[in-house]
Design a protein that fits this description.
Strand 4 and strand 5 form a beta hairpin. The chain has two helices and five strands, in the order H-E-E-E-H-E-E. It has one domain: 3-Layer(aba) Sandwich (Trna Endonuclease, Chain: A, domain 1). It has a five-stranded mixed sheet with strand order 1-2-3-4-5, with helices on both faces. With 121 residues, it is of the alpha+beta class. The mean pLDDT is 92. GO terms for molecular function: nucleic acid binding. Belongs to the UPF0102 family. This is UPF0102 protein Strop_1320. InterPro entries: Restrct_endonuc-II-like, tRNA_endonuc-like_dom_sf, UPF0102_YraN-like.
Length: 121
């Protein structure tokens, strides 16, 4: 990603792997990871029963720059809604319900702490 150091990219990728494991353990069925188009990226797309979950993953080693969930601004939420509509259109996927989740990953020593906020926005 432009503007991100290799270290930050590595931390983010690790956080996404932690989030994916969490979702699978919770019974969700991932269908896409790091889906990209010219307008942005969706970290994880997964089925939670009949509900399609669009998942944004935020990973932090410290809260110096705010909590992971605070990084999901209104602007980011609007972009994710547009990206989800585009993914649905491009893949021809039909979903009666689409939910937007945020997975907050904190890496503060010891095992990662994963918080899954279903329907975050």
């Amino acid at each position: 990603m432009p503007g991100m150091s290799r270290h930050n990219q590595s931390v983010g990728a690790y956080g996404e792997r932690c989030a994916l494991r969490h979702l699978i353990t919770a019974g969700l069925r991932p269908v896409a990871r790091n889906w990209r188009c010219p307008h942005g990226e969706i970290d994880i797309i997964a089925w939670d029963g009949p509900v399609l979950a669009i998942c944004e993953v935020k990973t932090r080693r410290t809260d110096t720059f705010g909590t992971p969930t605070a990084a999901v601004t209104g602007t980011k939420a609007r972009r994710l809604r547009l990206l989800a509509a585009r993914w649905l259109a491009e893949t021809g996927t039909r979903a009666d319900e689409v939910r937007f989740d945020v997975l907050s990953i904190r890496l503060t020593g010891g095992p990662p702490h994963v918080e899954h906020l279903k329907g975050a926005f």
